[in-house]
Design goal:
By secondary structure, the protein is α+β, with helices and mostly antiparallel strands. It has six helices and 13 strands. Strand 4 and strand 5 form a beta hairpin. Bound molecules: protoporphyrin IX containing FE (2 copies), the ligand Nc1nc2c(c(=O)[nH]1)N[C@H]1C(S)=C(S)[C@@H](COP(=O)(O)O)O[C@H]1N2 and molybdenum atom.
């Protein structure tokens, strides 16, 4: 049977490449969403290359899938489910990038994308149990490394072509930020989206009453604070960003001396983030946006403004700001609720 040996290795290569791409896509996707700095740009480009590599493998994988289905094993339905979630993941990724629609039914496109990605990982885990492919040292053969180089080059070219198509077709995606996010309501706070992480609801509070490391900050204290107005971009992992003029007090000035390694900021809802104490000179407790008091949706009476950090750091309805000895890395990288 001439050629069947190399066909088998091509099959192995395709399946192992899919496994690797999936892990890489999840990792780069989380990285792209975890940062608001240049790290995000690197991860976002890598994510595009990995995502499009999936598409390039379709011709090879469909051959494998066809012969798999022909064997009529029990449980093939799970493989069908996997095909569906992977197609939704890639489709919603491309849709998110195009920027023509920001929602799919009741969900933000990005929520569909991440949700389908998580399901894909679970289903691939099960797929792998049903079709174990043990990696071998020979998988790192010269030929496979060449294949990987070819795949990466192909995906790089596909990404460049796709990016220029976005520009030629003048789709919103051609103007997205380096995080992949689309612009919404910059300079016009009323048109800036109101977003919560998973479970929080907009709070309607009637006055400022924030615990600042043991002292209560109230409305009468505002006039004595060293206020500043800073321009900063709120960039939500939901896929949009908005640049506004925020007025507030820098955390190092609010706190005086910061005698601890982190600053814990907690909302009345219980939502909280911990910042490294050394960043206190670049994070603000803000009371106004666009020269007006914050609206309830945007965090009245006080919220965090943390330039270069993604939106989930910008705690709204701040109830307390506390200097702490617990290191800032000692928290989940993303909020859990
Ligand atoms: C990530 C996207 C993937 C999709 C959409 C997918 C889809 C499928 C489908 C539809 C089949 C045919 C039905 C079946 O036999 O269950 C199949 C078969 C198979 N898959 Fe996947 N798969 C993926 C990833 C993987 C990975 C990561 C591995 C292993 C590392 C793998 C290994 C296999 C094997 C060994 C078969 C059996 C082929 C045969 O019997 O000839 N697949 N896959
Ligand atoms: C199975 C895993 C995943 C696959 C196959 C996948 C695939 C894709 C694809 C094909 C795109 C479009 C890329 C482009 O047009 O440049 C995309 C975009 C995106 N994905 Fe994923 N993705 C996965 C998981 C994730 C996860 C877990 C996250 C975040 C936690 C994520 C975040 C993003 C972001 C932010 C974009 C927009 C990137 C940009 O604007 O260039 N992805 N994804
Ligand atoms: N208390 C609290 N603060 C929060 C959130 C939340 O769910 N609860 N969501 C964060 C997220 S994910 C984003 S993107 C911004 C959104 O701010 P905006 O609603 O003013 O646009 O608020 C952040 N602050
Ligand atoms: Mo967000």
């Amino acid at each position: 049977m001439h050629g069947s040996g190399s066909e088998a290795t091509l099959k192995r290569y395709t399946n192992l490449a899919l496994a690797t791409l999936l892990i890489g896509a999840i990792a780069s996707g989380l990285f792209a969403q975890g940062f608001g700095t240049e790290w995000s740009r690197v991860a976002t480009i890598a994510h595009g290359v990995l995502g499009l590599s999936f598409l390039l493998l379709v011709p090879w994988k469909s051959g494998i899938a066809r012969s798999g289905f022909r064997r009529r094993r029990k449980g093939a339905i799970w493989s069908v489910a996997l095909v569906v979630t992977v197609v939704i993941t890639i489709g919603s990724g491309l849709l998110q990038v195009m920027g023509t629609t920001s929602r799919i039914g009741p969900l933000a496109t990005m929520q569909v994308h991440i949700g389908a990605a998580v399901l894909s990982v679970l289903l691939v885990g099960w797929h792998y149990v049903r079709h174990p492919v043990r990696p071998r040292a020979t998988d790192l053969s010269r030929r496979n490394l060449l294949r990987t180089g070819g795949l990466a080059a192909g995906a790089g070219i596909a990404l460049a072509g796709w990016e220029s198509a976005l520009g030629v077709l003048d789709l919103p995606g051609s103007e997205r930020r380096f995080t992949g996010s689309h612009e919404r309501g910059s300079g016009n706070p009323a048109r800036m989206p109101v977003t919560q992480w998973f479970t929080d609801k907009v709070q309607r509070l009637d006055r400022l009453q924030t615990d600042v490391d043991g002292r209560v900050l109230g409305p009468d204290d505002l006039s004595s604070l060293p206020m500043e107005t800073v321009e900063a971009t709120l960039d939500c992992t939901g896929g949009w960003h908005s640049t506004q003029q925020w007025t507030g007090v820098r955390l190092d000035r609010l706190l005086g001396e910061v005698d601890g390694v982190s600053i814990r900021v907690r909302s009345v809802t219980g939502y909280e983030r911990r910042f490294p104490a050394r960043d206190a000179d670049s994070i603000w407790l803000a009371f106004e946006v666009g020269g007006q008091p914050l609206s309830a949706g945007h965090g009245y009476p006080a919220r965090i403004v943390a330039p270069d950090r993604r939106g989930f750091w910008w705690v709204k309805w701040v109830d307390s700001v506390t200097v702490s000895d617990v290191p800032a890395w000692f928290q989940p990288p993303f909020p859990l609720t």
